Amino acid sequence: MNRGIRKVPFGHVEETDTLKGTLVYYDTFQDVTDQQLRHAAELAKTRSFKKLVLYPLHEETARRMWKRPIEPYYVRENRLFDWRRESEDDGAITVENWEGKRKKYTPIEAALRHLADVYPQPMFLYVTPETANAFASFSSFEEWIGKIRLIISEPPPDAHPNLTKYRHRWDVEENS
């Protein structure tokens, strides 16, 4: 807290920032449409988040999480940069390329630590039900669910037991 003396004009009212926290869209972005990206941007705007961070996963991370083939990282990342340029509110949208710089498997714990260090808190993770179940299956889930909140894109049909245990820490955001 700054305790220095400062002069302000008569009648000055301190502006408070109504925008809080960060919404992190954690996904491979291989099958995500422009409409889903717009929906995530609208969600960030309606819930008054300071930033929307698009976090594309590296191929190695996706292979270890889901064991399926995936497009190269740079193709998915370039598509996100193109979408962000076309978006009207690109100042509040960031494409995080930390995992692309690492060029290898990045555990979700390391990604969350990096995001928590760089972006304003509180942090909300916007994920698909498949990603939420994969995250809930990791041993570090219980530690991280106390620090972040989840927003799941649609109701998980077969929720992991850890997801049901921490039901109060996540919401479902229906696509309209």
Summarize the structure.
Helix content is 39%, strand content 15%. The protein is of the alpha/beta class and 176 residues long.
Fold topology:
Elements: E1 22-27, H1 34-46, E2 51-56, H2 59-66, H3 73-86, E3 93-95, H4 98-102, H5 108-118, E4 123-127, H6 129-136, H7 141-145, E5 149-152, H8 161-165, E6 170-172
Parallel strand pairs: 1-2, 1-4, 2-3, 4-5, 5-6
Organism: Paenibacillus catalpae
Protein name: Nicotinic acid mononucleotide adenylyltransferase
CATH superfamily, called what?
Answer: HUPs
**Structural class by sheet pairing and helices:** alpha/beta
Strand order of the largest sheet: 3-2-1-4-5-6
Structural domain count: 1
- The secondary-structure element order is EHEHHEHHEHHEHE
Q: Shape from CA axes?
A: globular
Which spans of ≥5 residues are poorly predicted at pLDDT below 50? none
**DSSP helix fraction:** 25-40%
Distance from N terminus to C terminus (CA atoms, Å) equals 43 Å
Overall pLDDT = 89
Strand content: 15-25%
Question: Could you characterize the architecture of this molecule?
Answer:
With 176 residues, the chain is of the alpha/beta class. The N and C termini lie far apart (43 Å). The chain contains eight helices and six strands, in the order E-H-E-H-H-E-H-H-E-H-H-E-H-E. The chain has a six-stranded parallel beta sheet. Strand 5 (149-152), helix 8 and strand 6 form a beta-alpha-beta unit. The protein has helices at residues 34-46, 59-66, 73-86, 98-102, 108-118, 129-136, 141-145, 161-165, and strands at 22-27, 51-56, 93-95, 123-127, 149-152, 170-172. The protein has a single domain (22-156), classed as Rossmann fold (3-Layer(aba) Sandwich). The relative contact order is 0.15. This is Nicotinic acid mononucleotide adenylyltransferase.
